[in-house]
Specification:
The chain is of the alpha+beta class. It has one domain. It is 18% helix and 7% strand. The protein has a two-stranded antiparallel sheet. Strands 3-4 form a two-stranded antiparallel ribbon. A hairpin with a 7-residue loop joins strand 1 and strand 2. The protein is elongated.
Length: 274
């Protein structure tokens, strides 16, 4: 009986295991295999392997012309198993990251390098600037160093009642499922500079600016905060960047949150006594 050469065996194992993507909130296991996004060859039985039926090969053997086009081919609301990031989203309530819209889609794609407000590094933004498509151990597959300049890695810690299993975005990708523990503002600051305004990452209780009574009694959907004890509202709640701004954008200036869906004051007055 012939034996397989050890080197050939390693190659077989590598190809067999390479079909399973790395870990992460979404792109992992059998729910996201390499061939969902890449093609080893550019045709099968003479037919294009790109999902837009373009016969030309794409960079990195992608199945769409660009990484942005590839991401949106699943994340535009057409795939019920993928988080929808395009306005209007198909979830109950306002999704944690907001939603890209034609009116304010700056974080989705800017065609030329720009310096983010408060930052110093010119960047061209697309989905994979912030998210690692191959998965990692960070919240929402966020890159620990989105600038790719060797800054100290930032880990975002959260508590989630429902974890992603590759098929349940409507349970996972809603604000009520996520309690932010630490790291959010520091992560945003990698591109936008260290947040030093608005009492970021400081407890609301005892603040000379925030009114804890207003925060604890609001009847509107509460904006996201860091919560050290997993209870919201509580005295240790901390304002973070996404307390005021939507990471994926909104129809309002500066990607701002309107807690009542209509006015900026409704967001401000969750923490400030009117």
């Amino acid at each position: 009986m012939s034996r397989i050469h050890p080197l050939l065996l390693l190659v077989i194992i590598a190809f067999a295991t390479a079909r399973i993507a790395a870990g992460g909130d979404w792109h992992y296991g059998t729910h996201m295999v390499c061939s969902d996004c890449h093609t080893q060859h550019n045709s099968e039985n003479g037919q294009p392997m790109r999902t837009d039926n373009n016969p030309l090969p794409a960079p990195m053997l992608l199945r769409r012309g660009t990484a942005l086009e590839l991401c949106l081919s699943c994340h535009d609301g057409s795939n019920p198993n993928a988080p929808d990031v395009m306005a209007p989203v198909g979830y109950v309530g306002d999704p944690a990251g907001g939603a890209f819209s034609p009116l304010n889609a700056h974080h989705l794609n800017n065609p030329t390098a720009e310096v983010p407000p408060g930052g110093t590094i010119p960047m061209v933004l697309t989905c994979t600037t912030c998210h690692d498509p191959h998965g990692n151990d960070n919240y929402r597959n966020l890159r620990p160093d989105p600038t790719k300049t060797g800054q100290p890695s930032v880990t975002i810690l959260t508590v989630q009642s429902n974890r992603a299993n590759g098929t349940n975005p409507s349970q996972v990708y809603v604000p009520s499922n996520v309690i932010y523990k630490s790291g959010v503002s520091k992560w945003c600051g990698q591109c936008h500079g260290d947040p030093t305004h608005h009492s970021v990452d400081k407890p609301m209780w005892g603040s000379a600016i925030a009114d804890y009574a207003a925060w604890s009694s609001t009847t509107l959907p509460r904006v996201p905060v860091h919560s050290l004890d997993n209870t919201i509202p509580s005295a240790d709640d901390q304002v973070i960047c996404i307390s005021c701004h939507k990471a994926h954008g909104s129809d309002h200036d500066h990607l701002l949150i309107y807690a009542d869906g209509a006015t900026l004051n409704s967001t401000c007055q969750e923490c400030h006594n009117p």
